[in-house]
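Discrete fold record:
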Amino acid sequence: MDIAEIMRRMESGIDEFKGNYGSRIAEVEATMRHLEKKANRPGAETYNDNPENAEHKAAYDKFLRKGFDDGLADLEAKAMNITTSADGGYALPEEIDRTVDELLRNRSSIRSIAQVVKVGSQDYKKLVSVHGAVATWVGETSSRPETNTPQLAEVAPPIGELYANPAVTQRALDDVFFNVESWLAGELAQQFGLAEGTAFVSGDGTNKPKGFLAGTINTSTDGARTFGHLQMIKTGVAGDFVATTTSSNPVDTLIKTIYSLTPEYRSNAWWTMNSTTLERIRTFKDADGNYIWRPGAEQGAPSLLLGHPVLECPDMGDVATDTYPIAFGDFRKGYLIADRIGTRVLRDPYTNKPYVHFYTTKRVGGALLDSNAIRVVATRT
């Protein structure tokens, strides 16, 4: 058998293999690519992976643009994680609702570092350990006396209803190139974010979340302080920080604040303050004359203050007499945000022609979760 015949038979075998198994290999490769794509994105099962959800989203687009709601209520009832309400409006599809949540993390400062949970009712409660349990060492045959029972505290974040009423012209909605979903998500995040941000810091808990600064704040340390009360670290000067002298430095207050937290909270702690306070802090220097501020090493990375990231929070107060301009702590453990499932939209093309208003409501709550996880700096003697 010559070389030409051998090559011909090899090519014939390859063609036969491709014919028998090629389509199967292509199918397996396509499946693997699909699985890899799902595994590499947050939330493996996307909204459009569910045909009912995709149908709901398409119907919702017609509702937003034209006000057509044929069959939307039935689709909404079948869609996962969507709740309906008797007081009108339709719930945002899960994909748009998720986009609003993602944008809110950027616009509502505390939300980006706090613990956020989705709840299905107004009566959500969370049990928190007050660290009352005690463990002890014993010998092999020693008696085992009863130890202290761990104490649990119940945290029930007050939930209030937040609303926004963005408007756009009908002509814009008729434009096929106008991304109505993106516009609505951006408008809602902007308006909700401003209101939420204030409530999470200083809200009084009446028809709104209770902010972490709204409760009792004193100088008692962990263990001696009532659960739910925050500890303050005083600057030593009314309405200001101490001046830099041979025996004092304003940085000392910040260092004291850091080490007033136990290590379990300190490792993931953030500084929060507004831009005015931030400007002031950036001028602080250590005993060697070096600035204590360290800008983020990469674009988008938080700047560091004494080794801990800084969150600029416009809702924190200014440096003034008897204020709390700075908070420091592990907000993931210290503050709880509860989002009710289902943001509802009521389309109103009549009130302000030629504008179409989208009256949108969202229920959200918030409360201090673990008062040992957060400290506040007080500008007082």
Notes: The domain at 90-131+144-381 is CATH 3.90.1690 (phage-related protein like fold). Residues 201 and 211 are 4 Å apart (CA to CA). The chain has one domain: 90-131+144-381. The longest helix spans residues 3-39.
